[in-house]
Amino acid sequence: MNIRKISRLTLALLLLFASLASAQNSPAPLTVIRAGTLIDGQSNTPLKNRLIFVRDGRIEKVADSSASIPADAKLIDLSNATVLPGLIDSHTHLFLWGEDPKKGGYDANILKAGIALRAARATYAAKRALEQGFTTIRDVETEGAGYGDIEIKQAIEEGTIPGPRIFGATRGISSTGGYNLEGYAPELTMPKGVQIIDGPVEARKAAREQLEHGADWLKVYMTHRSWVDKQGHLVSQPTLTVEELKAIVDEAHGWGKKVACHAYNGPGLQRALDGGCDSIEHGLEITDAQIEQMAKQGTWYCPTIAAYYGDWAPENTHEGKRDRARVSVHETSFRKAMNAHLKIVYGTDMGGIPWQEPMAQEFRRMESLGMSPMDAIQSATSRAADMLDEKGELGVVAAGAYADIIAVSGDPLKDVTEFGKVKFVMKAGAIYKNDFAIRHKRHPALEGRHNRFPALDPFQSVISIVSGESPTTRGATTLRENYKHDSGRNFRQSPGRASILANATRARSSNRTNDAPRCFHT
Question: Each residue of 355-364: pLDDT tens digit?
Answer without folding.
Answer: 999 999 999 9
